[in-house]
Design brief:
- A 6-stranded mixed sheet has the order 6-7-8-3-9-10, with helices on both faces. It has a 4-stranded antiparallel sheet with strand order 2-1-4-5, with helices on one face.
- A hairpin with a 5-residue loop joins strand 1 and strand 2.
- Helix 3 crosses helix 4, helix 4 crosses helix 5 and helix 5 runs parallel beside helix 6.
- The radius of gyration is 17 Å and the shape is globular.
- The chain has about 230 residues and is an alpha/beta fold.
- The protein has a domain of about 110 residues: P-loop containing nucleotide triphosphate hydrolases (Rossmann fold, 3-Layer(aba) Sandwich), CATH 3.40.50.300.
- Part of the ABC transporter FtsEX involved in cellular division.
- Keywords: ATP-binding, Cell cycle, Cell division, Cell membrane, Membrane, Nucleotide-binding.
- Belongs to the ABC transporter superfamily.
- Pfam families: ABC_tran.
Length: about 230
């Protein structure tokens, strides 16, 4: 599903964010990418969604080499990859349903399709009763659930979650992780970028540890180790 072949990323100022990364993530896997701040884990997430391009090497998503993807093709890729960030990025003047609908509207989806999909994703994330609420009237955990629902509208094969629990308390964070696990069980490949040892250890699935832009550990069932 995701393959990095000797991928490096060097910024113009000489900063090496990734150095000769070589790994593959299979369809249906739940993988945690961990490491200290500045280790390069977020760069990996950004390269998966083509927000950053590698300096060297190949990145293949579902058989598609996106290493030098054209700007016009990025929206097509993004419809196959759901993205969840620490910063909710919700539109404050739109309701929960409108925030989710907007992700479909910008892609030209017809109203009939929108009216069908929005209730479905709201049910998955458990927000059926919050449809007409505005973001400011939701808890942090509920806002993150809206973000996840929005990420699911195109039925992506991959969900990339970059520090999705960073702004949440411990109990709410675990609820969000449980939701990601549920989505994974439904068949979506999940890539979780996090620095939270407790969450990674509880998941007890594959862990890729990044250190100074390189992979220091890659375990099928692992714990958070640095």
């Amino acid at each position: 599903m995701i393959t990095f072949e000797h991928v490096s990323k060097v910024y113009p100022d000489g900063t090496v964010a990734a150095a000769d990364l070589d790994f593959a993530i299979e369809p249906g896997e739940f993988v945690s990418i961990v490491g200290q701040s500045g280790a390069g884990k977020t760069t990996i997430a950004r390269m998966i969604i083509a927000e950053e391009k590698p300096t060297e090497g190949k990145i293949i998503i579902g058989g598609w080499d996106i290493s030098h993807i054209a700007a016009s093709e990025i929206p097509v890729l993004r419809r196959q990859i759901g993205v969840v960030f620490q910063d909710f990025k919700l539109l404050k003047r739109k309701t929960v349903a409108e925030n989710i609908s907007f992700a479909l509207e910008v892609c030209g989806a017809k109203r009939k399709k929108i009216n069908k999909i929005v209730p479905q994703v709201l049910k998955i994330v458990g927000l059926e009763k919050k449809t007409n609420k505005f973001p400011d009237h939701l808890s942090g955990g509920e806002q993150q659930r809206v973000v996840i629902a929005r990420a699911l509208v195109h039925r992506p094969k991959i969900l990339v979650a970059d520090e999705p629990t960073g702004n949440l308390d411990t109990i709410t964070a675990h609820e969000i992780i449980d939701l990601l696990l549920k989505i994974n069980v439904l068949g979506t490949t999940v890539v979780l970028v996090t620095h939270n040892p407790e969450i990674v250890n509880e998941i007890n699935k594959r862990v890729i540890t990044v250190d100074n832009g390189t992979i220091s550990s890659n375990r099928k069932k692992g714990k958070y180790t640095l």
